[in-house]
Amino acid sequence: MKRSLIILLLVAIGILPSLGQDLPTDFLSVEFHKERRDLVREKMPTNAVAVFFANPVRNRANDVDYIYHQDPNFYYLTGYKEPHAVLMIFKEDQEGPDGTYNEIIFIQPRNAMAELWTGRRLGVGGVKDKLKFNQVFNNTEFEAYNIDFSKFDKVLFYDFFNDVRNTATNGDLYDLIASFKKKSGYPTEGALDIESKANNLDTETLDQIMRDLRGIKTEEELDLLRKAVDISCIAQAEVMKAMKPGLSEREVQGIHEFIFKKYQSEYEGYPSIVGEGHNGCILHYIENYKPQISSDKMILMDLGAEYHGYTADVTRTIPVDGKFSKEEKAIYDLVYKAQEAAIQACKPGVNISRDLNNAIAKRIINEGLVELGIIDSVNQRHLYYPHGLGHHIGLDVHDKGNYEYLEPNMAITIEPGIYIPEGANCDEKWWGIAVRIEDDVLITEDGFELLSDLAPRTSEEIEELMKQPSPLDAFVLPDLDKKE
Ligand code: GLY
Ligand code: MN
Ligand code: MN
Fold first, then answer.
1. Residue list, ligand 1 pocket, CB within 6 Å
2. What is the percentage of the chain residues whose pLDDT exceeds 90?
3. Nearest CA to ligand 1 atom 3
4. In this predicted model, what pLDDT tens digit does every residue of 40-64 receive, in sequence order?
5. What 3-state class would DSSP assign to 289?
6. Residue 70: C-alpha distances to residues 75, 319, 387, 396 (Å)
7. N or C: which end of the chain has fewer CB within 10 A?
């Protein structure tokens, strides 16, 4: 019998998808997700229901979709990684035919043919068994599910962007949202207006709840985040050894990402930024197209491994030939000085923008730019440092979290930079110099812990490491142009 026919038969009788999967064992635990749902419930107002939808599937072109990425809130609360699902959390116990319940999830059904093409699905049984939900239904049942949203004082949800495709499949995300809108009395035209805000539909409270929860990391989350950061830093250090003129920006990106994969990181937490020379002035430069990087330039590398959902965000800027020029070193050391002072000031109670950026990092950078003759006064408006100092990291690279003041177990970046584009209003010896140094910091009870300490930061440490050989020096591939 042909192998393909056997597979088809196995699939048809439902065996293949349930064959044992050799999966990593260090995902967030079932208990973690349950505890998070309990905490959402605790923070909800009385007589409220919170409704969360899975992320949409996005089409890349024709038959090809983008790799699916679950909505981070949905993943945080469920561990469910598949699309076309809706979760409801109730503040108070609800009465049902099988007794009381306080949460319910509708998920995509098992489907042997779909699973043959796109992979295993948990199905109702899997969600009960593996994710330990009691009330689990197929998404096709949501439309007929009897729920009276008008009986709640508050129906909490994130407002819709109205950008979800209606597929041919019954019970898909489009149908789930349409059913919810119908059941809840959501206005038929566009987003919520003032009038409907007077009813029980609330699109603001849920984000505050999620921000407060996700901004403070648990030990379990920190294990994954530390791993993502370590992997990203090891990649930076290996690239420092492998760096040489003539590599392409894309190749440098590939070395980082190969190392991410070597450590089982599934994805990049954001598109990798690898910019030589003035390309580094484009803050989110993701083209990475320069075919040959030059010996007289620096290269800015901002990449983050995503490990089981948690992403690092680490930037290093290094001289392509292993030695900073006088001007490069002056700018690099200035950014380092600003960054180091801001990191040392990290502790509970401080505000990233006011206390760390304005009072420390920006001040040091402006004073340094005056000293170097790049600007005339510390108060001169300029665009050489055009972004903020940092942000929370976690399931999103720009993660949810409170920005009023730092608290223990918040994980943030500290990432000052100086970017001097070609043609800038200063001596041209500075043109094309772009430096960002970005590190990941955990706020502790009385200060901070530098998470990204496996990647050298000072100009001296970088030059020292770049002298070391790399196993990639011996990795030479055939020249495509010389192929016979
Ligand atoms: N990599 C994006 C950022 O640094 O915010
Ligand atoms: Mn960042
Ligand atoms: Mn970054």
1. 270, 302, 313, 397, 415, 438
2. 91
3. 313
4. 999 999 999 999 999 999 999 999 9
5. coil
6. 6, 38, 28, 11
7. C
